Amino acid sequence: MFDVEVYRLVREKYAFPLSGLGASIKGARWNSVGTEIIYTAANRSLAMAEVAVHLTLATLPQDFLMLSLFIPDDLSIKIIDAASLPDNWNYFPYPSSTQQIGDAFVRENKYCVMKVPSVVTFGDFNILINPKHLEFGRISIVNVEKFPFDKRIFR
């Protein structure tokens, strides 16, 4: 069964409404520029780690929020395991092959959610959400908390 609570760490000014617009502006590992996708994590620590790898103490904003999202367990889900991915799926910079997987997920619009392995934390999973899918409206934000980073992470 699929976990029903996922987490998104995001700067306050980009938190609402819940959308994939930010990801579509720059592109990322699982989407190319122009493809809207919402990145979440299966737990809070992974959500934090996924953001922390892009920051330094000097560039650390103070306005992060941790969003807890409820995903009904009967939503359509596609599960991707590492064994089915290209050998370079976890390289940095990320390869276009992983972006093509995420773009196809959104374009085909068959599933609302896609579970993918995390590059940052081996054994954990990111949960990608297609905001264009018909079932997207069933996903809700159930909690919002200010999230101060522990500065020791950036030493």
Uncertain segments are: none
Query: Helices and strands, in N-to-C order?
Result: EHEHEEHEEE
Largest sheet: 4 strands, mixed
Our Rg estimate from Cα atoms comes to 15 Å
How many angstroms separate the termini? 38 Å
* CATH hierarchy: architecture: Alpha-Beta Complex
Q: The CATH topology, please?
A: Diphtheria Toxin, domain 1
Strand order of the largest sheet: 2-6-5-4
CATH class label: Alpha Beta
Query: Which percent bin holds the helix content?
Result: 10-25%
Total domain units: 1
Give the rounded overall mean pLDDT: 92
Number of strands: 7
Structural class: alpha+beta
Number of helix segments?
A: 3
Shape: globular
Q: Beta fraction of the residues?
A: 15-25%
Main attributes of the structure:
Diphtheria Toxin, domain 1, three-stranded antiparallel beta sheet, 18% helix, alpha+beta, 7 strands, four-stranded mixed beta sheet, 155 residues, single chain
